[in-house]
Amino acid sequence: MQIAVLGAGVIGLASAYYLNRAGHQVIVVDQHGEVAAETSFGAGGQLSYSYVAPLAGPGVLTKLPAWLARRDSPVRFRPSVSTEQWLWCLKFVLACTRRRSNLTTRDLLALSFASRALMQQLVRDEPTLDFDFRRSGKLVLHRDVAAMRGAIDLLDFQRSLGCEQEVLSADECVALEPALADVRARIAGGIYTRSEETADCHRFSKGLEVILRSRGVRFSMNTHVDSLEFAQGGHIVARSSGRTLDADHVVVAAGAGATRLLRPLGLHVPVYPLKGYSLTYPLGPHAIAPALSVTDYAHKVVYARLGDRLRVAGMADLDGYSLKPDPSRLAALRAETAGLFPQVAAGDAGATEWTGLRPATPRGTPIIGPTRYRNLWLNIGHGALGFTLASGSAALLAGWINGRPDPSLSHLFMHAQ
Question: What's the CA gap between 355 and 198, in Å, rounded?
Answer without folding.
Answer: 20
